[in-house]
Amino acid sequence: MRSEVTDERDWLLRRDFLEKRGYRLRFEVYRVLPGEVKAEDSQRGYDLSEYLKAKPAIRTPISASKPAFPTASPRRSMDAQRVSDGSEVLLQSVSTAEHPQEVEIARLLSSPPHSGHPRNHSIPILDILDDPLDPDRHILVMVRCVGIDDSAFDTVGEVVDCLRQIFQSIEYMHEHFIAHRDCNSLNFVQDPTRLYPDGFHPVVIHYGRKNRTIVGKITRTECWPRYFAITCDLSRQYDPANGRASRRHGSPSECNPFPTDIYFLGNMIKKDFLYVTPLHHPEWVSVSLRPSAHRPLLFLQPLIDEMTLPDPASRPTIGEAIQKLDDLCGRLSNWELRQPGVRMAWYDRLEQRFRQFGRMVRGVKPVPVYVPRTDRVSLSGEMRAFYTQRAEVVEDGDEEKKERQEFEIGGTVEYSAIV
């Protein structure tokens, strides 16, 4: 395991190359070693005086807790700034030998005609650079986003909008025979441009970029952010002409990745939206403590049950899941859509109530304008089998069973929707 210091130095080795291509690293990378900052660095636009006055938390390198790269390669991601317009970007290093399809899928979904399609929610790739120090690697330049849970959901309507966009992103990928294969909340992000109108620090997003001031933010209802799916290193594109879409895990198990995406989506809704553990750290939960459902979101339970059925062939396709979601959301009244999207303390709930009354008076809608899709083509029997067929071999140890075991926290906590 490499240290964070060496990780940052790896990106510093590529600093001149990146600046020639129009990207400037964050000034905190100069904390690498005493004396690493050079006199000419002040001419590069780095304000180190502000950095030195910042709180230690702000000076923490980005994602320092993530696994590091091998010695010859940089840490997988680093934030930077595009010199031409000052916009925030994220640099991600990808090995084509380890993940042969990641760059190609990212390039495909970020190129016309996909890049301009309204249902394509794959995170935009602004540039793809060849690593100057490693011919096996590429550096993806993507827009800077924040996690979907970096700002609390103020209302049920905000949760509905988030899920609709996430489902759209997976449907668009499945239509082009791309399986995401890692549908969890860490791989879905949101555009923070309007959510944080004054900007934010790339590591501690609740601080300003160069000082310790708490930045202001607004609720999603006031800006309705766009959500994106990150195509990860596990994503793959399949060819229906070659027959069954399947993948192997570490064990001899084999499963179809498309219904597995459906299972993971349903499990994500269950873990990260509907059910709430008594503590922030599930590993601390005693056997006597049970997670409880957030009542305003209980309308999602029938959808979760269908998406997490044990038999992959019995689960809905992503198109059918969207239709089910639209049906469930269509039954909600405006008042139900204005209920808190997450569990809140009584004082936060009181403040939320006042906000909703104010929005009702001003005529602010609890959800953005949404028109259900009408051009969805019914799948033929052959294509439905491609998306839902059960693998010939499914044994203990497959990824879905592993996910269920992890969700049950070692068997000490039971969730009502897991049967």
* Strand residues, percent: 5-15%
Broad CATH class of the largest domain: Mainly Alpha
Shape: globular
Task: State the CATH architecture of the largest domain.
Answer: Orthogonal Bundle
Q: How would you classify the quaternary structure?
A: single chain
Give the count of helical stretches. 12
Strand runs, count: 14
Mean pLDDT: 78
- The SSE order reads HHEHEEHEEEHEEEEEEHEEHHHHHH
Helix content: 25-40%
InterPro entries: Kinase-like_dom_sf (IPR011009)
Protein name: Protein kinase domain-containing protein
Organism: Roridomyces roridus
Please describe what this structure looks like.
The chain has 419 residues and is of the alpha+beta class. The two termini are 39 Å apart. The protein is 30% helix and 12% strand. The protein has 12 helices and 14 strands. It folds into 2 domains: 105 residues, Phosphorylase Kinase, domain 1 (2-Layer Sandwich), CATH 3.30.200.20; 221 residues, Orthogonal Bundle (Transferase(Phosphotransferase), domain 1), CATH 1.10.510.10. The strands form 5 sheets. The protein has a 5-stranded antiparallel β-sheet. Strands 6-8-9 form a 3-stranded antiparallel β-sheet, covered by helices on one side. The longest helix is centred in the middle third of the chain and has 20 residues.
